[in-house]
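For the sake of transparency, this paper describes our internal protein records without simplification. Such a record has a labelled line for the sequence and another for the backbone structure tokens. Nothing more is needed to write down the fold, since each code stands for a local backbone conformation. For reference, a complete record is included directly beneath this paragraph.
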Amino acid sequence: MTISELARFHLGYPPPGIDELVCDDGEPMESSRHREQMILLIHTLRDHLSFRSDVYIGGNEFLYFSETQARNNDFRGPDVFVVLGVEPGERKAWVTWLEGGKTPDVVIELSSVSTWEEDYGHKQRVYAQRLGVKEYFVYDPFSGQLDGFSLAQATREYQSLAPNSQGRLPVTQLGLELGVLPGDFQGSKIPWLRWFTPDGRPLATSEEKLADERQRVQLEKQRADAERQYAEAEKQRAEAEKQRAEAEKQRAEAEKRRADLEAAARAEAEERIRVLEAKLAGQRQSK
């Protein structure tokens, strides 16, 4: 603790509040790709964890963990970070002494040629030794290199994470994985760093969800059309069967009428023969 901090402590001064801290330095991210990558990670994770009321997901905002650091303004916050066990809601910056000392559980830095030394050096040490960030990831959106680290609590040092057979890294704090997947986001068809469920499904973007919904509606329409066509064909088949049965009935009736006519004609002929034979027999007897 510095002399200034000791003086504030002994005099009973509270640490600086949010309105006393710098929350925007006006510096843009390294590139539009870095910005879009951050948006992709934050939005898909927020949507995935929207049912929870104990998660804060932030990005490209200041993180304050000591008055000295706040005064010197020598540490920019993570590009993407997740804090578990806290109230969600908007913050201008993450200030640990305003959050009960809570620090991020997961941090992702989007690296570049100008920041990689800081990301793998000073920031990595701060996240491990000062903040105790349990899982730390560094990703370069242009080279596609992804590295992950898990904090060994006993030594406060990071251990490298090994990728699984699909090349993805585990994010045990969230029950997810991180991996690179080619895709189309914000009009850019490039490899993107994505969140994955343990069974290998990427957390969908709003565009992907819209496309899936359109496909679902189209498939539902095709299914309804197929069912309608089937019903129409079944109706036609039933009508044809009805017509066939009617024709069979008419044929049977016609056959019966023919048989009846033949029987009647035969009976009439037999009766004439019988009458003639009777007459002939009578004539013979009269002679």
